[in-house]
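Good morning N.,

You mentioned wanting to compare the apo and holo forms, so I went ahead and generated the holo version with 6-O-phosphono-alpha-D-glucopyranose. This is what I fed in:
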Amino acid sequence: EQINKGHYEHYMQKEIHEQPESLTTTMRGRLIRLGSNKSKSVLLGGLKDHLKTIRRSRRVVFIGCGTSYNAALAARPILEELSGIPVTMEIASDLLDREGPLYREDTAVFVSQSGETADTLLALQYALDNGALCVGITNTVGSAIARNTHCGVHINAGAEIGVASTKAYTSQIVVMVMLALAIGGDTISNQARREAIIDGLFDLPNKVREVLKLDEEMKDLAKLLIAEQSLLVFGRGYNYATALEGALKVKEVALMHSEGILAGEMKHGPLALVDETLPIVVVATRDACFSKQQSVIQQLHARKGRLIVMCSKGDATSVCPNEYCRVIEVPQVEDCLQPVINVVPLQLLAYHLTVLRGFNVDQPRNLAKSVTTQ
Ligand code: G6P
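and this is what came out, ligand included:
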C-alpha cells in the first residue's frame, strides 16, 4: 500500500498533488492543430458520431451526484456560452424523486467518476426510457454508465482511491470544457475565445503545479481553523461550483460543518450568520463577476465578517478590506478554467484540517467511494 502512495502519507494527498499529471493524461491526444493555418481544435473520439445530434438537441441536462454534480456545475456556463443550448442541472436522486421531464430532443450527460453510482445509473435508465440521447463521462472504462450510454468520454484521470474525489473532479471539469468546445463548433465569432481556452488548457497543468505551492500556506490556515465548528464558502458564476465543492471536501473529510453559498443569495439569508467569529472564504478571482464579489467582501466586512479571500495574483491589496483579512492568491487562467485552479487550495485545506483534527483522510466515517445502493 505504501508503495502505491509513494512518498505521500495518504491517497488523498497523493491524488491532490498528482493533478498536473492527471490533467495532462485527460487532455492527451484530444487537443489538436488543424489545417494549414494550424487552428486549434478538440477531438473527442467517443462523441464524433453523435455530435450533430447533440448540437441539434433542445437542451443539455447534466446529471450526477456529489463531486461529479459540482464538476458539471462548473462547466455549465461555458457550455451555454459556446453552444447556445440551454443547460439544466439535475442531482440524480432528485430527478428520480420528481420523475422530472426528459424528452427525445434532450441530451442527458451522466457524470460519474466510478460509473457505478446507483442513483446516477437509475437516472440513466430513466433517461433511456424517455428516449433522450445519453452521454457518459466516467473515469472507469467498462463501468455500467460507460456501457449503457449511447456515447461518452473517459476522464482518464487514473484510479482514484481516496473517498473524497480530487483529481477526478478537476479532470471532469476539463473533459466538460472540451465537450463545450466540441459541441460549440467553430465559428468566426467565437474563434478567439476558443483559441484562448485551448491555449489555457495546454498551460493548465503548469498553473496547477504553481497553485500546489500553496500547500504550506493552506496547512497554516488549517492550523488556524482547526477548532472551528463551521466554515462558509462564497462563490458565484464559474466559482459557485468551487464554493460547493470546497465546502463538500471540508465536511466529508475534516468532519466540519461547511456550506457552499451562491454569493448572489447572500442577502437572502446567509448574511444573518455573519459575525466576528465565523470564518468565511470568499472566492473573488478575476472574471466577469469580480466587481460583484468585491461588493460582497465589503458587505461582509461591514458586518465584521472573519474573511479569507481567494483572489488572483497581485489583487491582494485591492480585495482585502483590512489587515486581518487572510488572502489566498492563485494564478489567473481563462475564466472557465479558473475552477480547476481555485479548488486546489480548498482541497489542500480540507486535507490538512483532517490530518490536524486526527480523522481518517482516505476513508471518512460513514462514506463510501462508490455508492451502489439507493
Ligand atoms: C460518493 C463519493 C463521492 C462522489 C459521489 C458520486 O458519495 O463519496 O466522492 O462524488 O459518490 O460518485 P461518482 O462515482 O458517481 O462520481
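The longest strand covers residues 106-112.

Happy to go through it together on a call whenever suits you.

Best,
F.
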